[in-house]
Amino acid sequence: MKREFKKGWRPASVLILLLLIWEASSRFLNVPDWLLPAPSLIAKEGIIGWNGYSHHLFSTIQLTVAGFLIGASVGLIIAIALHLIPSLREAIYPLLILSQNIPIIVLAPLLVIWFGFGALPKLIVIVLVCFFPIAVSAMDGLKQTTPELKHYMHMAGATKGQIFRKLEWPHALPSIFSGLKISATYSVMGAVISEWLGANQGIGVYMTLASSSFRTDRVFVAIFLIMVLSLLFFFLITLAERRLTKWQSKGAGEAHE
Predict the structure, then answer these.
(1) What pLDDT score does 255 carry?
(2) pLDDT tops 70 at residue 100
């Protein structure tokens, strides 16, 4: 805990300094509030406007969590299938790379045309944003298993499924969690983009309404909420990673000793 505090006080200090400079500049330069509101005005709007955006926030959280869980599942299934079936990997992997070259902002209107304005096109957008980092990270992690350990298990008579469950999968967990952390932040962005397409509620809708009415303070509130959600999801996955990979950190410490 002390170590984390020592690491965190520097960026926190820089952030506070930037906010103070922003606040002072807005006041002394008489910058119009509709152009660039001071942090104090943004904080005030965030507090007094809770009832106006709370339902948008909860809607985005639900959409983000659902899309992230589906995207993570799809990414892991693809990674495992391509790892266990080399011929499938050679056929499918290039297509996965091509799928990331299609701009989501261009594909999203087509999804609305095909699937309507319900939750399905929004979930598809989040899944498309999330699954690729997880799939690539998981495949890289599964390939990094020590060859000597695999050879030892082969010599011991282990089947391919046993090698995967007891050796390859545990050793791939750090890489998998790296992909999950990246996808967790992307999922919030994907949810907001999907809400721009035609939703009734959500942070994306709140931001669009605030922008069209020149309520710049509310736009910054929406940006702040998106940042907080991204950091929260990242933090939760980091906690899960620490719990599930304790054995690796202990093993590394013993080896170092």
Answers:
(1) 39
(2) yes
254 pLDDT more than 50: no
Q: What is the DSSP string of the chain?
A: -HHHHHHHHHHHHHHHHHHHHHHHHHHHTT--TTTS--HHHHHHHHHHTHHHHHHHHHHHHHHHHHHHHHHHHHHHHHHHHHHH-HHHHHHHHHHHHHHTTS-HHHHHHHHHHHHTTSHHHHHHHHHHHHHHHHHHHHHHHHHTS-HHHHHHHHHTT--HHHHIIIIIHHHHHHHHHHHHHHHHHHHHHHHHHHHHTT-SSSHHHHHHHHHHTT-HHHHHHHHHHHHHHHHHHHHHHHHHHHHHTHHHHHHHHHHH-
How far apart, in whole angstroms, are the C-alpha atoms of residue 207 and residue 201?
A: 10
**Is the pLDDT at 113 greater than 70, yes or no?**
yes
> Looking at per-residue confidence, does 105 or 37 come out higher?
37
53-249: CATH number: 1.10.3720.10
For the chain, give every domain's residue range.
53-249
> Over 90: is that where the pLDDT of 93 sits?
no
Asked if 226 and 189 count as a contact pair (C-beta separation under 8 A), the reply is yes
pLDDT, mean of residues 178-200: 87
